[in-house]
Amino acid sequence: MIIERIKGLFAGQLLGKQVTVAGWVRTRRDAGSFSFIEVNDGSTLANLQVIAERTLTNYEDEIKRLTTGCSVVITGELKESPAKGQAVEVLADVVSVVGWADPESYPLQKKRHSFEYLREISHLRPRTNALGAVARVRSHLTHAVHRFFQQRGFFHIHTPVITTSDCEGAGEMFQVLTASEAARKGALPEQGKGFFGKPAGLTVSGQLQAEVYAQALGRVYTFGPTFRAENSNTSRHLAEFWMLEPEMAFCDLSCNMDLAETLLRFLLADVLAECAEDMALFDRFVAQGVIKRLQHIVDNDFIRITYTEAVDRLLSSGKSFDFPVSWGVDLQSEHERFLTEEVYGLPLIVTDYPAAIKPFYMRVGDDGTTVAAMDILVAGIGEIVGGSQREERYDVLLARMQHLGIDDVDYQWYLDLRRYGTVPHSGFGLGFERLVQLVTGMPNIREVIPFPRTPGYAPC
Ligand code: 4AD
Ligand code: MG
């Protein structure tokens, strides 16, 4: 039985009954005629205290040799615990040792290790309290995402990982080659050659394919890994990250913003209600006050301003930034932080960015210089959502692609969507790791994905 059940709802019903628990030893402490063993099975943050009496047959040979990290299966009676801070404990009848963990070489000890150190042992770090909590909260959020969309009539679409379209047009696609193609020195397959007949890569976004399905099924979402060969070694960039991308037909920019805001507030409220124990750990040891900050987001409307207003606000602040601000520049993280942390104190939806700094698919505004884009910025992280209303007018889209030098032959399928039954439609991408960072307060994105991939780093 998992410890989460034993300590949770069913504790009362199980008192006096035999239970069997399988997990890993956190600590062992000897006290005269018995030992206390703290066992954790990962189902919950809490350990289960086990009392192993000296009378057990393997007490001297095995139980007294148990150290942090050993795996055990324990059967015994669940009793009320006289100890402070726990309701129940197990009086063991049987303690079987399944696997030993040599204390001399086991890298995890009963002390706080730095996150940098834990990154070097990504195969063992989920056994720590903080990284275990991150994994449970991440799993919960994944489930909450599906619940949110399924309750609202969206269909989940599996978009491809390998693609020949560079959605964002930023030249950050990883190339996909067969081993023999790669062995041919220095040569990328030419157009018309190679495994797929043309250059292919790992997707940077599932959006373009989600648009196909939105214009058939109405409201869809895709949620999968995306890849970017961005050489940025920051606390919020990964080369492989998960993105949640809804796409809605018959939906304009304001409908898009409403959905993104409702989604974020739903997810935060859900995790606060359902993951209280793990959230309390983050609040205490990782990011003090994170629960209050999330509740503040849940309780208040986001602030909506245009890019032009954001630039004016930055210019009138009198603050000197490393990257000087002027209309037309992309907002840097220092600008995003200033706006969210020092000016507004709430998530900020910035709309109507200059067309020149946004991808080809965004709908061009009446002024001809801005696009119907929206980014959501949050304190401590910066951009967490990037989205837009898509250009649904065939001629305008074609002209923009030609202007940007995008080969429209490769995108006939995308243009077809505008040729046959085109509709206003919108969508956005939520960076899932940035969401997990916001929720847990983890300072570095490398801690919120099980196996981070960053420049120079992909150990297993
Ligand atoms: O703003 P981005 O590039 O938008 C798109 O890819 C759109 N095609 C999405 C859409 O409209 N369907 O990326 C969306 C979000 C960002 O706001 C950020 O949260 C996250 O993805 N993101 C990253 N997260 C971690 N590491 C990276 N290198 C990231 N790049 C973007
Ligand atoms: Mg963006």
Automatic annotation (TrEMBL):
InterPro entries: Aa-tRNA-synt_II, aa-tRNA-synth_II, aa-tRNA-synth_II/BPL/LPL, Asn-tRNA-ligase, Asp/Asn-tRNA-synth_IIb, NA-bd_OB-fold, NA-bd_OB_tRNA
Residues covered by the Aminoacyl-transfer RNA synthetases class-II family profile domain: 136-450
UniProt catalytic activity: tRNA(Asn) + L-asparagine + ATP = L-asparaginyl-tRNA(Asn) + AMP + diphosphate + H(+)
Record-level GO BP terms: asparaginyl-tRNA aminoacylation
SUPFAM superfamilies per record: Class II aaRS and biotin synthetases (SSF55681), Nucleic acid-binding proteins (SSF50249)
Pfam families, per the entry: tRNA-synt_2, tRNA_anti-codon
Keyword Ligase found: yes
Gene Ontology MF, one: nucleic acid binding
EC number: 6.1.1.22
Recorded superkingdom: Bacteria
GO CC annotations on file: cytoplasm
Keywords: Aminoacyl-tRNA synthetase, ATP-binding, Cytoplasm, Ligase, Nucleotide-binding, Protein biosynthesis
Cellular compartments annotated: Cytoplasm
Record PANTHER family: ASPARAGINE--TRNA LIGASE, MITOCHONDRIAL-RELATED, ASPARTYL/LYSYL-TRNA SYNTHETASE
Subunit structure: Homodimer.
Database matches in NCBIfam families: asnS, PRK03932.1
Family statement: Belongs to the class-II aminoacyl-tRNA synthetase family.
Protein known as: Asparagine--tRNA ligase
Organism: Desulfofustis glycolicus DSM 9705
Organism phylogeny: Bacteria, Pseudomonadati, Thermodesulfobacteriota, Desulfobulbia, Desulfobulbales
